[in-house]
């Protein structure tokens, strides 16, 4: 897959973690990046996780939740040891992660941010999340995702 490398795949290769890349043609008119990925790849949407950047007590943090749900901001704040959370400004999220919105991966971010992965991920052998580019998903064991992002696992999806 020449030309498919991203900071996320570079991290996975460096750590010698088993993963599979799944590319699809991104349609900019689609309303949901995650649901688009599930449809395009023919997989259950609850196995596809979106990466959302929030501001918790003035600092950025990442929530990784199924595309079928919403990020519970209060639960994210509690999971990362904070009190109050709100969605981060898109430009701030892009600057901190090094990725563009719709292609933000929890892996290989420019700045290491606290990460919480929704507990539902543990119910699957593998989950899908952005590989760092719109139209590119990485399939990975949830325990590898948690380990590589140093995430806490908590019920953060509403």
From TrEMBL:
<dbReference type="Pfam" id="PF04073">
    <property type="entry name" value="tRNA_edit"/>
</dbReference>
<feature type="domain" description="YbaK/aminoacyl-tRNA synthetase-associated">
    <location>
        <begin position="36"/>
        <end position="148"/>
    </location>
</feature>
<dbReference type="GO" id="GO:0016829">
    <property type="term" value="F:lyase activity"/>
</dbReference>
<protein>
    <recommendedName>
        <fullName>Cys-tRNA(Pro)/Cys-tRNA(Cys) deacylase</fullName>
        <ecNumber>4.2.-.-</ecNumber>
    </recommendedName>
</protein>
<keyword id="KW-0648">Protein biosynthesis</keyword>
<keyword id="KW-0456">Lyase</keyword>
<dbReference type="InterPro" id="IPR036754">
    <property type="entry name" value="YbaK/aa-tRNA-synt-asso_dom_sf"/>
</dbReference>
<dbReference type="GO" id="GO:0006412">
    <property type="term" value="P:translation"/>
</dbReference>
<dbReference type="InterPro" id="IPR004369">
    <property type="entry name" value="Prolyl-tRNA_editing_YbaK/EbsC"/>
</dbReference>
<comment type="similarity">
    <text>Belongs to the prolyl-tRNA editing family. YbaK/EbsC subfamily.</text>
</comment>
<dbReference type="InterPro" id="IPR007214">
    <property type="entry name" value="YbaK/aa-tRNA-synth-assoc-dom"/>
</dbReference>
<dbReference type="GO" id="GO:0002161">
    <property type="term" value="F:aminoacyl-tRNA deacylase activity"/>
</dbReference>
């Amino acid at each position: 897959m020449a030309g498919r490398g991203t900071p996320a795949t570079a991290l996975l290769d460096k750590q010698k973690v088993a993963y599979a890349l799944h590319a699809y043609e991104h349609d900019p008119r689609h309303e949901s990046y995650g649901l688009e990925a599930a449809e395009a790849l023919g997989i259950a949407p609850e196995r596809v996780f979106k990466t959302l950047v929030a501001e918790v007590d003035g600092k950025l943090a990442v929530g990784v939740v199924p595309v079928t749900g919403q990020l519970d901001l209060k639960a994210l704040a509690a999971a990362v040891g904070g009190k109050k959370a709100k969605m981060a400004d898109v430009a701030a999220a892009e600057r901190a992660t090094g990725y563009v919105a719709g292609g933000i991966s929890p892996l290989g971010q420019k700045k290491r941010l606290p990460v919480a992965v929704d507990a539902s991920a543990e119910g699957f052998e593998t989950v899908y999340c952005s590989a760092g580019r719109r139209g590119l998903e990485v399939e990975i064991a949830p325990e590898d995702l948690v380990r590589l992002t140093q995430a806490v696992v908590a019920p953060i999806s509403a």
